[in-house]
């Protein structure tokens, strides 16, 4: 998993530790419900395998999680053609298209 090594290297070069920033490389259902309130808003990156179509399930869990505070930003990578109906408390800030990929930035309220 090359992307994991790159992320770990970037965290180290920025002098960020895993204790300060939770880094998870597992299925969302394994960590969202047990995510601990970090004391301030979070930055959540969501890039599930496109073919598994877990987006709505994961977004619902993020929207319901007390551990992911209001003001947190959720970044979603998805196929450009995929359409979303976001949970009511996740407001889209911006959407950008890069080739066949779409990035959505949402804020939790």
Tell me what the structure shows.
This protein has 109 residues and is α+β, with helices and mostly antiparallel strands. The chain has one domain: Rossmann fold (3-Layer(aba) Sandwich). 20% of the residues lie in helices and 26% in strands. It contains two helices and four strands; from the N terminus they run αβαβββ. The protein has a four-stranded mixed beta sheet, with helices on one face. Strand 1, helix 2 and strand 2 form a beta-alpha-beta unit. It is globular.
Write a short abstract of this structure.
20% of the residues lie in helices and 26% in strands. It is built from 2 helices and 4 strands.
- What's the arrangement of strands in the largest beta sheet? 1-2-4-3
Major sheet: size, sense and barrel closure? Answer: 4 strands, mixed
Specify the CATH architecture.
3-Layer(aba) Sandwich
Seen as an oligomer or otherwise, the chain set is single chain
Strand content: 25-35%
């Amino acid at each position: 998993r090359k992307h994991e090594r790159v992320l770990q290297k970037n965290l180290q070069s920025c002098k960020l530790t895993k204790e300060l920033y939770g880094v998870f490389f597992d299925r969302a259902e394994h960590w969202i419900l047990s995510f601990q309130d970090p004391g301030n808003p979070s930055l959540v990156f969501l890039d599930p395998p496109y073919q598994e179509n877990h987006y709505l399930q994961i977004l619902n869990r993020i929207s319901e999680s007390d551990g992911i505070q209001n003001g947190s930003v959720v970044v979603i990578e998805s196929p450009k053609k995929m359409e979303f109906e976001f949970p009511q408390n996740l407001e889209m800030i911006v959407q950008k298209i890069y080739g066949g990929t779409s990035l959505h930035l949402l804020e939790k309220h």
